[in-house]
Amino acid sequence: MGIPVLILGNSGTGKSASMRNLDESKYGLVNPAKKPLPFKSGKRALDSDDYKRITHALDSAVSKIIVIDDAQYLMANEFMRRANEKGYDKFTKIGKDFFDLIQHVTDRLPPEKIVYFMGHTEVDQFGNTKFKTIGKMLDEKVTVEGLFTIVFKTHVQTNPRGYFFSTQNDGTDTVKTPIGMFTDELIDNDLVIVDAAIREYYGLNS
Question: Is the pLDDT of residue 109 over 70?
Fold first, then answer.
């Protein structure tokens, strides 16, 4: 089974920038928001929010690293296209499509493929920080983070300035990593470091 990894954070806190040190020839990029990367890059992406095209790309990719940047726009774009529709059926479809994509990674991809879902956060009614979704189906019936064994959250340090990923839950978020995968609560927001640690932990080929 493939390994889905969730990376959460507000806009501009270092999610997309974590790709900056990856070898452009060794990772695939899905870009539902169709926006430029926040660093100089000649990387070509699949600029699409079409689930069939994305799952086909995941299946056929030679790369063992695949990033779905701004993954919440898979749901948000579908919602906006259907904004004039009445009723709640559209929310069920939006939630199921996203759920099925995560399941496709775990059920259909080989174990050496790691798919990084990057997404924005929101604060729920209890003050907890979580992945931003559309409607209530994914929150109430599924809980997106429950489909991931590895969840990071961005952390911006102001003095001195620095961008990091948190690896441990602080009691108000959904961060989690397997025991012993990381010894530090904060690590550099660098997917090269993250991917190497995950592959070493699970004994996967790089």
Answer: yes
